[in-house]
Recover the amino acids of this structure.
């Protein structure tokens, strides 16, 4: 494997904003799950088709699965973002392009985390409103 530069890059304002937004979305998913769990019937929709219609059902405790999984994924991606020099890149990493490539790799992870967190909020909302 090629020897890549290891850089300690401070977070940009955009990266920080995305991380804070992700955290807020995760807290929202947990809050919605808790709120809906109090009033849900024993059986709730837990799977939806592409049209957004429920096509699978389970116990009401399943409403906590999405926030839990999303939180675990967000933590793993945040930890992985600390080692961008270990990622696979399409281009060879050099001193000249390392910062740009590493920031791009980090942004990809943060974006994935943000999308997963937003989907978690939406799905918990769909399950609760079911």
């Amino acid at each position: 494997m090629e020897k890549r530069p290891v850089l300690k890059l401070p977070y940009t304002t955009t990266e920080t904003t995305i991380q804070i937004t992700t955290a807020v979305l995760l807290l929202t998913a947990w809050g919605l799950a808790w709120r809906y769990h109090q009033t849900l019937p024993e059986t709730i929709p837990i799977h939806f088709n592409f049209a957004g219609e429920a096509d699978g059902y389970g116990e009401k405790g399943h409403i906590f699965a999405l926030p839990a999984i999303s939180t675990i994924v967000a933590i793993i991606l945040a930890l992985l973002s600390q080692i961008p020099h270990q990622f696979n890149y399409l281009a060879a990493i050099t001193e000249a392009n390392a910062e740009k490539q590493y920031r791009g790799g980090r942004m990809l992870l943060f974006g994935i985390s943000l999308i997963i967190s937003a989907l978690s909020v939406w799905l918990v909302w769909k399950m609760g409103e079911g």
Remarks:
- The radius of gyration is 19 Å.
- Residues 13-129 form one domain.
- The chain has a mean pLDDT of 92.
